[in-house]
Specification:
Shape: globular
CATH architecture of the largest domain: 3-Layer(aba) Sandwich
Low-confidence stretches: 1-29
Mean pLDDT: 90
CATH topology of the largest domain: Vanillyl-alcohol Oxidase, Chain A, domain 3
Radius of gyration: 21 Å
Number of domains: 3
Bound molecules: flavin-adenine dinucleotide
Strand content: 25-35%
Structural class: alpha+beta
Distance between the termini: 18 Å
Number of helices: 14
Amino acid sequence: MGLCRRSFLQAGIAAALLPSARLVAAPTAANAIVLNDASRLNPTPVAKVAILSGRDEENLLASLRNELREAAKEGRPVAVGGARHSMGGQSLARGGTAVSLETSIVKPDVAANVYRVGAGARWREVLAALDPLQLSPAVMQSNNDFSIGGTLSVNAHGWPVPFGPFGTTVKSFRMLLADGELVTCSRDQNADLFSLAVGGYGLFGVIIDAELAAASNWSLRARPARLPSDEFTKAFIDAANQPLNAMLYGRLSVSRDNFLRDALMVAYRSDGFQPTVAKAGKPSAAYAYLSRNIFRAQTGSETGKKPRWLVETRLTATVSPSVTRNELLNHPVAEFADSNFRRTDILHEYFVPPERLEDFLAGCREIIPRHSQDLLSVTLRYVGGDESSVLAYAAGPRIAAVMLFVQPMTPEANQDMQAMTAKLIDHVLSLGGSFYLPYRLHATRAQVRRAYPRAEEFIAAKRRFDPNLLFRNTLWDRYFG
Ligand SMILES: Cc1cc2nc3c(=O)[nH]c(=O)nc-3n(C[C@H](O)[C@H](O)[C@H](O)COP(=O)(O)OP(=O)(O)OC[C@H]3O[C@@H](n4cnc5c(N)ncnc54)[C@H](O)[C@@H]3O)c2cc1C
């Protein structure tokens, strides 16, 4: 937060030169290892990077236990990283041991409609394993880059309907605790740890693997509908609860003359058959190129925002009339990522009680234009209620508003973003909603406690299960420590 202009740019350059946000490591002059995350705004020196791989589980567990013991002995924190796509240092601990798991084994059980997967696996690997079996992940994010451990630990959500967050589709998982004990957690076994670690940001232990619900990989057809934003909620909730709809999203116009007033709703409905040929591994390069360039042409340009909306509302939904569930899920972040190191994409996400969506948008129309941030897209998703996780962001059914901003890598832009975020959070809280924690840590402690009323219970449990606070990251330091 207190970074000067030079370190903002250095952080950006270091990250831009490296191949992936998964492990952005750049040696500094002092020879320390500096890691970063998807925001490129969190250069964090760490004492050690431990990448643990291998098919031999005993070896993996022994190495991990050694790392935990060594870190505890030397008094440094441990933070696990998946793809490090969180944006506020949630996967990083200053001066700590940065652990990554390379455990991508996927074991489907077709008869039981479940699969077991290593926590280090990425969704693209899961899709490749499930697709030939006509199975699909029940819930995952909208892109395929993320790790299973990261997805579970932020309790992500996606756009398949009518699901709640990812945790509602987790059958069980195994986790290595701070004292080296390996525990199985489910709704029946170690149920307290299950509720704490789903959405627990790696603060209770290292997730080793998980058993997850699968869905059928139906062939789907898009049904787009354009409507004014004040008619959106009813149509959207009806569509989310229509059993034939498998996937559903909404979009809002972001050009200034029509700011958040025009909506597009796209439901993908099963056309009644499952593909016999595996297709998820073949996304179209031409389509990706076209959609990325149209999307990026909006940056800093009102004239770019109008054609993009036109393309989106008139063309996108008709480009691929029949598509499988897995094809829709199998898209990397790189398809729309920016390559300019002077700016960075920053996501926000607000969970709004459906009946308050129009009030939420009315406030956004006031707040956002008063700041200098460039809003490139607003996607709306349905998220069913989550009764089990302690840090639940959806106490009941919610409409999730995902906002993608482009922020210059300057301290001024960061301050402006922080001020705008604080207002948007106050606004959503006043409507009984909440906000998502894997993004920039611009909320105050008081805002976190209002959005997450069981935060004190979470902290007390953390101190019970991990009394020496071995597992720590920036989220813990800023809000809970
Ligand atoms: C472009 C983009 C699109 C996104 N889209 C969506 C979306 O559609 N839906 C959604 O819900 N979210 C979305 N997100 C947010 C995303 O789900 C989170 O940032 C998530 O953390 C990403 O997974 P990861 O593997 O990168 O996790 P990381 O960022 O590496 O880690 C996240 C947290 O999980 C912990 N963790 C990771 N692995 C383990 C493990 N094995 N054991 C214990 N703890 C672990 C980390 O310590 C950290 O606290 C998006 C983010 C980006 C950048």
